[in-house]
Amino acid sequence: MFPEKEVYEIGQLVFEYEDGQTEKVPLTYGYNIGNKDVKWERTKDGDPGYNNGFKLADHLLEMSFATLPLKKGEETVYKCLVANPQPKKVLKDFRTEVYPDKNCKVYTESVRYLS
User: Fold this and answer.
1) What is the spatial distance between Cα 56 and Cα 58, in angstroms, rounded to a whole number?
2) Which residue, 102, 98, 80, is CA-closest to 32?
3) What Cα–Cα distance (Å) separates residue 47 from each residue in 15, 44, 97?
4) What is the pTM of this model?
């Protein structure tokens, strides 16, 4: 989906298990995370054949179907579903790691486990 991995992959979601094993899932800008500063206003100057004639921030439209952008105050946060890579193992910790060269910050507000 994102051919330029070195550009869009900004870090990893890290699953750590009680047996010491870790699994990592890519944290990819535009797929499971996005910018917090997104404009949510719609204007009527859009193309009538595209988005019902309204224009809104393209970034809200380019997220994957696994990620939901939500407005929280003046910022945009992202809710995404991530499958546990080792569902039969006991999960000890979950965290995000951002690559140091990406010059960005990621905050995890909450983690919910589905069984």
Assistant:
1) 6
2) 80
3) 43, 9, 40
4) 0.74
Task: Note the pLDDT tens digit of each residue in 50-79.
Answer: 556 666 666 666 666 778 888 899 888 888
- The candidate with the shortest Cα–Cα distance to 113, out of 82, 73, 74, 68, is 82
Q: How far is Cα 69 from Cα 78, in angstroms, rounded to an integer?
A: 5
DSSP annotation of 55: B
Residue 104 and residue 10: Cα distance in Å, rounded? 8
User: Do 16 and 93 meet the contact criterion of CB atoms below 8 Å apart?
Assistant: yes
**What is the tens place of the pLDDT at every residue in 74-87?**
888 888 888 899 99
Q: Cα separations (Å) of 41 from 53, 70, 82, 94, 99? A: 13, 13, 29, 34, 32
